[in-house]
Structure formats: C-alpha cells, structure tokens
Amino acid sequence: MKIVVEKKSLLEMKVDAIVNPANSSGRMGGGVAGMIKKLGGAQIEKEAMAQAPIAVGEAVMTSAGSLPCKFVIHAPTMEKPSEKTTSEKVFRAATAAIELAKKKGIKTMAIPGMGTGVGRVAPQEAAKAIVDAVRNFSDHLLDVIYLVDVNDAIINAFKEEAGKAAG
What's the CA gap between 141 and 100, in Å, rounded? Predict the structure, then answer.
C-alpha cells in the first residue's frame, strides 16, 4: 500500500472513496461534511442519516453524488455535530474507514485531517492518529491512501508522521 500526502481539496479527489469525518447522526452541517454535501448533493446526507446512528469506531458508505469519487465513507469522530473530539476518536474513525474500505473492495481512498476543524484536535495529534491507523493496515489490500488537506499545518504534520511510518 502506498501513502501519498498532497495539499489538495478532498472534494477534487478522483478516487474510489473519500472519508467524511462525520458525527453519529450522519448530519452534514459544517466543515468537511458541509462541503461534501454542498458540492456532492443532499442525497449523500440522506443516505448517511438513513444508516444512523453510527457509533464512533464504525463507518458507513454512501454514494458520492456529483463528486468525482465513487463513494463517501462516513466515519464519525464525534457523537454530536460540532462537538470537541480527541485523537483517540480520530484513530478509531480512521481505522473504521479503512476497515470498511477493505471490506467493500476499495483500492484508492482519500482521508482529510479528521478532527482538526470543528473537532479541534491539533494537526500533529490528528496526523499521528490517522497515520497510525493506516500503518495498522500494511497488508496491501488498498493500493493507495491519499492523506489530503488544504491546510499547510495538517499537510506538514501528515508528511512528518508518514515519514516516521516509512522510516
């Protein structure tokens, strides 16, 4: 499995699946989720909410509407919308997203800086949690995992943590 770090919008990724750092209700109000809904369509939120509640540590998959990816994996980092979260919950969410991707035969996926927006987790802590989750799945069932964000602090943290993982 290859890990690629790119400063890029999650919403531009032409991959099998992107990961939405969701909440347990499946509501897509703010942050990354709000942008996914705005650009991909309200159907994505409807499909996610139909599968709720989604516990932290679980994930569900929906269509991607008009986004360039095929699917959206909703992996809650918090129970309630806009709730402060932790790096431990980010790790559990990233792990759940990767496990679901493997189960569904996803080969390429993109993960943003989960928990770093409304969840208020520091970029370095979130990057470490996400890269640790990716590192736990070194069995190569996925071809490429892209770690993407538009925030320089998150991209730098991803690069540092991915470098440690490779070293």
Answer: 12
18 CB neighbour count, 10 Å cutoff: 28
Query: Phi and psi of 74, rounded to 5°?
Result: -100, 110
- Going by their DSSP bridges, the two strands 108-111 and 71-78 should be labelled as unpaired
* C-alpha span between 101 and 24 (Å, rounded): 19
> 113-124: b or e for each residue (b if 16 or more CB lie within 10 Å)?
bbbbbbbebebb
- How far is residue 115's CA from residue 69's CA, in Å, rounded to a whole number? 21
For the chain, the straight-line distance linking the first and the last C-alpha, in angstroms and rounded, comes to 15
Check: CB of residue 54 under 8 Å from CB of residue 74: yes
DSSP for residue 104: T
- pTM exceeding 0.85: yes
- Quick: pLDDT tens for 60-97: 999 999 999 999 999 999 999 889 999 999 999 999 99
The domain 2-166 having CATH identifier 3.40.220.10: the answer here is yes
Find out whether 91 and 126 touch, Cβ atoms under 8 Å.
no
Q: Which residue has the tokens 């809904």?
A: 37
